[in-house]
Recover the amino acids of this structure.
């Protein structure tokens, strides 16, 4: 096949993507070197001042970053455990297996912000059903205005929303596993637990790693849920990096500074996701 | 031992099912309430605990001028933006994925895998990073608050998904199919459109569904890049939340806006059970 044809297939997509993205990326880098804010909107050049401020003064950014790490690692871990359990359960023999598969997929089809609005009414402190139920035991937790509980609420909502995605990826993986390995294990007389430890889990390791990384990428962008559910509050108890950048950039209009934040955040994300991927590969595949 | 296992399994499935369904049932029940029934505490069963009313649903079709919410226009906007962005992404993504799967590219140190990674890596980009430059870029182009601007942005969100799924899919389609077509005297384009494309419909459907899901459920870009002219569904519904919240119309509009994609869950399950999805998702 000659030179021209293959480029005609590839280039339209590639050029459209680059065409739309090239300006935003270069502009973010340039903007991060300027002091653009609402008083003085313009591209001046102040060197690395924004970055110095970010690394030396801005406690709030780093706090929001650790909060994000905590929230995304917790939710993804929960989603993995729950999603894997659910996938294993509806994998083989189960009554109404296909019904449950559809049911478990439904949350990921719903719009996160819209469901979060509903969740907000569910967790409402005086009018919601959760506290209505808990009041039977004479406790009425302040789900959205307590530092710790607000995080718990975010984790519950995120788990509800995204466990199905993990479930889908893992179930698709389970269904593609070769039958032979399981037959061999049955012949050797392995029970369900040993089958899982020695056959299913190792076979699923690459798929698990893929699924975890995909979910971590998506979870690190968590923003919609927090905007609707808590607006980062109470105080800054649920403020994540994305949300902090959003406040700086599009609420306080410190465009230059928020571009520096964005760029730093992006670099940290890429580096840490690469490290996590490497670690996961080592931990999960070395086992056998 | 086995009985205990079965018991635990069904127990867990029941609890999880209840957790999945709970917010929908609550929303359904709330959508038939009025101010009185909402503010008097949590109630669940219509007629028994509160007097149901259709007000929450009726409001959705009225214009804002007559005290309604009017979700009809945002609904159509959402459909237009999601469908056009998905179609363009699938079209360009399929072509690019086909090229990446069949031909070798080499430009300096950049090879096929690097190009594929470039496509997919756009998913890593946090929306907030792109939001400010997009805001300024669309403002400059005069496309802020317009459907075209949103479609452009959504292509960036959706094309990585299409490329990711389709590259894996084409890697599974045997090369012999297009080679035979070429030997039979087709040029590469005929081979692609007449032979390869009809065989890749399942992959394109899977990719299309994921584009629809991620396009329909996006909120952030629609929220940042539009104001009053063009409002998408999630933005309109979340706006309800910020004022004195009318829970009944909120619940009704939430239910009606998540409804269309529930159908997608059935299609995904069909593909899953037939084994077509496993190849496409790995």
């Amino acid at each position: 096949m000659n030179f021209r044809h293959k480029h005609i297939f590839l280039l339209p997509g590639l050029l459209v993507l680059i065409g739309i993205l090239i300006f935003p990326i270069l502009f973010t880098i340039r903007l991060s070197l300027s002091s653009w804010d609402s008083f003085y909107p313009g591209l001046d050049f102040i060197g690395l001042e924004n970055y110095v401020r970010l690394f030396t003064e801005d406690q709030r950014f780093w706090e929001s970053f650790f909060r994000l790490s905590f929230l995304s690692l917790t939710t993804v871990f929960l989603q993995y455990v729950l999603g894997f359990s659910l996938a294993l359960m509806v994998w083989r023999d189960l009554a109404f297996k296909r019904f449950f598969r559809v049911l478990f997929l439904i949350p990921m089809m719903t719009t996160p912000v819209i469901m979060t609005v509903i969740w907000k009414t569910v967790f409402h402190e005086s009018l919601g059903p959760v506290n209505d139920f808990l009041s039977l035991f004479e406790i009425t937790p302040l789900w959205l205005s307590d530092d710790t509980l607000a995080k718990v609420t975010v984790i519950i909502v995120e788990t509800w929303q995204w466990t199905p995605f993990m479930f889908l990826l893992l179930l698709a993986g389970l269904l593609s596993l070769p039958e032979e390995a399981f037959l061999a294990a049955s012949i050797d007389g392995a029970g369900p637990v040993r089958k899982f430890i020695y056959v299913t889990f190792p076979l699923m390791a690459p798929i698990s790693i893929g699924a975890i990384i995909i979910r971590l990428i998506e979870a690190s962008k968590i923003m919609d849920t927090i905007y609707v559910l808590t607006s980062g509050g109470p105080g800054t108890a649920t403020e994540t990096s994305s949300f902090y950048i959003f406040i700086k950039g599009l609420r306080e209009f410190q465009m230059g500074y928020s571009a520096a934040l964005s760029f730093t955040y992006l670099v940290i994300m890429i580096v840490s996701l690469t490290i996590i991927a490497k670690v996961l590969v080592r931990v999960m595949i070395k086992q056998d | 031992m086995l009985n205990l296992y079965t018991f635990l399994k069904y127990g867990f499935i029941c609890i999880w099912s209840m957790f999945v369904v709970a917010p929908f049932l609550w929303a359904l029940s709330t959508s038939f309430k009025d101010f009185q029934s909402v503010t008097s505490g949590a109630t669940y069963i219509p007629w028994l605990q509160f007097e149901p009313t259709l007000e929450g649903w009726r409001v959705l079709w009225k214009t804002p001028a007559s005290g309604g919410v009017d979700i009809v226009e945002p609904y159509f906007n959402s459909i237009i933006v999601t469908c056009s962005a998905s179609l363009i992404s699938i079209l360009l993504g399929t072509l690019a994925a086909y090229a990446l799967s069949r031909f070798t590219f080499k430009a300096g140190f950049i090879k096929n895998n690097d190009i594929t990674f470039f496509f997919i890596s756009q998913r890593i980009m946090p929306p907030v990073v792109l939001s400010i430059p997009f805001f300024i870029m669309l403002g400059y182009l005069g496309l802020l608050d317009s459907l075209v601007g949103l479609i452009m942005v959504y292509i960036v969100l959706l094309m990585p998904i299409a490329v990711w799924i389709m590259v894996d899919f084409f890697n599974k389609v045997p090369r012999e199919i297009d080679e035979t077509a070429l030997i039979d005297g087709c040029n590469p384009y005929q081979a692609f459109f007449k032979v390869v494309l009809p065989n890749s419909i399942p992959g394109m459907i899977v990719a299309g569904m994921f584009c629809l899901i991620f396009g329909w459920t996006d909120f952030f870009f629609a929220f940042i890049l539009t104001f009053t002219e063009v409002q998408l569904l999630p933005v309109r519904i979340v706006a309800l939340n910020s004022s004195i919240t009318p829970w009944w119309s909120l619940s009704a509009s939430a239910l009606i806006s998540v409804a269309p994609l529930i159908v997608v869950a059935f299609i995904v399950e069909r593909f899953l059970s037939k084994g077509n999805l496993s190849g496409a998702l790995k």
